[in-house]
Write a structure and sequence with these properties.
Length: 204
Amino acid sequence: MPRSSATAKQKVVTELRRAEILTAATKVFGNKGFDDTLMDEIARAAGLAKGTLYLYFKSKDDIYQAVVRHALAQVDALTQQHVDASPTFAARFSAFIRVRIAFWQDHHLLYRVILSMGRAPQYRKKSIGWQREAVSYLVRVMEEGAAAREIPPQDFLAAAWMTMDAIRGANERRVFADCDSNTVEQDVEALTSLLLQAVQPRQS
C-alpha cells in the first residue's frame, strides 16, 4: 500500500477512535461529573484498554476539553443550519435561541458538568472563550438584520453577549430546577419575545 494511502487510512482510524472516546466520555462525565470520573471508566465505556486511551488523550482534563469542544461544534453547526433556513431577522434570532435551548435540554447531564466546571478558576477564561465564537456569529446575524433595516444600529457585541447570558440562565434553570414545568418552546417564545423588544424596539 502506498505510504499516502496508509497515512490517510490511519488518519481515518484515529479520528474514528477519538470520536468513539468522546462519545463514551460524554456519557461518563454526564452521569458521574468531572471529579468522580476516572480514566479507567472512560476507557471501559469506549471499549479500550487504559493504555490505549492515553495514546489519544494525555489526561482526563484533555478529554473533557475535547468533549466540550465537540459538543459546541455540534450546537454551532445546528444553529447555523436553522438560522440560515429562517427568512427574517426575528425568525433567525428565534432559531438561534431555540437551538441553544433544545440542544442542551437533550444533553442536560453534560450541561450540568459544563456549568459546574465553568465556575472553577482554571476554566473561567476558557468558558468565555468557548462562547466567543457563538457571540461573533450572533453579531453577524444582527449586522445582517441591521443592513436589511429589520433592526436599528446598536452595540451588537453587547447585545449578543446579553443574549448568550440570558440563554445560559434559562438553560441553567432548566437543568437544575426540577420543579420547572415550562416546555422548551415556552421558554424559547418567552425569551425571544423579551430579547426582541430590546434589539428590535417597536416604532412609536
